[in-house]
Amino acid sequence: MPRVKRGTHRVTRRKNILARTKGMMWGRKNRITLAKIAAVKAGAHGYVGRKLKKRNNRGLQNIRINAAVRELGTTYSKFMADLKKRGIVLDRKVLAELAQKQPAAFAKLVKA
Length: 112
What we know:
mainly alpha, c-terminal domain of poly(a) binding protein, 0% strand, rod-shaped
């Protein structure tokens, strides 16, 4: 059996793991065993965090639309039902931006 040297593959794998944990504190940035665990957990938390960010933004958009609509004398649910009846297809992100940045245009939309 010939001798197999695994130096390059091993070094490359370690470098990749340590690159992912760069900037972490204590031994997680330079000890390979701790770095592996930290990299896996960071990836998992990052995945969940991206989903939570979307959820939080959707809630914030609903709150902004509701606040703007209530100033104009109606409620969020009535406003959304009217939009659906009239066939106006605008998503909540666009409505929230319109309410925040262009209140005059949003007021015309509510009146219509």
